[in-house]
Design goal:
elongated; about 180 residues; four-stranded antiparallel beta sheet; 1 helix; five-stranded antiparallel beta sheet
Length: about 180
């Protein structure tokens, strides 16, 4: 009798552990989805500090002889905070991450469309059109590219200092498309 009771208790504990593990895995999956949702041109993406709306993605010839061609993405940026932002893509910066052929490209140059200067700061509720420019690697073959957008999370009271802070980045959206002008 005692032996049967021990076997049943062990089996019950195993079933309970399996159910709890299954629930925990479901909660983790819901908390941090693996693939961010797709986004299209003209659809705004909330990056935490700013709202970014991709407008176009195109190949462009080199600016000067001997330089590589570039991939240009025109976007509309809107500062969602109440103060001017010098770290538009967060700190450390997480601009849209471009990948093609399984290779992640270096960070782009970000210039203002209105005057061609580098983006230094973005004022609250004042939309700006900017261009993100990536230099094409010499061995790149035209094809679909993938852009991953990261959102920085705001916490009103962080655990270390008890102050408001911008923390952690999470992939929030992904755009896959063939750039204009690609053969």
């Amino acid at each position: 009798m005692l032996r049967r009771l021990r076997v049943r208790m062990a089996a019950s504990a195993g079933v309970a552990a399996a159910v709890l593990l299954g629930l925990w895995l479901k909660v983790e999956e819901a908390r941090a989805p693996q693939d961010p949702p797709p986004v299209a041109l003209g659809q705004p993406v909330d990056l935490g500090r700013v709202e970014l709306t991709p407008l176009s993605l195109a190949l462009a010839p080199p600016e000067q002889q001997g330089e590589p061609a570039r991939l240009l993405m025109q976007v509309r940026l809107l500062n969602l905070t109440g103060e001017s932002q010098t770290a538009v893509f967060g700190f450390p910066p997480h601009p849209p991450e471009l990948a093609s052929g399984g290779v992640v490209w270096p960070e782009p140059e970000v210039t203002l469309d209105r005057d061609g200067e580098m983006l230094a700061q973005l004022h609250p509720r004042l939309a700006e059109r900017v261009t993100l420019a990536w230099q094409l690697p010499p061995d790149w073959r035209p094809g679909p590219v993938s852009l991953t957008f990261h959102r920085q999370i705001f916490k009103l009271r962080d655990n270390l200092y008890g102050m408001s802070n911008w923390l952690l980045f999470q992939p929030t959206a992904r755009m896959t498309m063939l750039p204009e002008g690609a053969p």
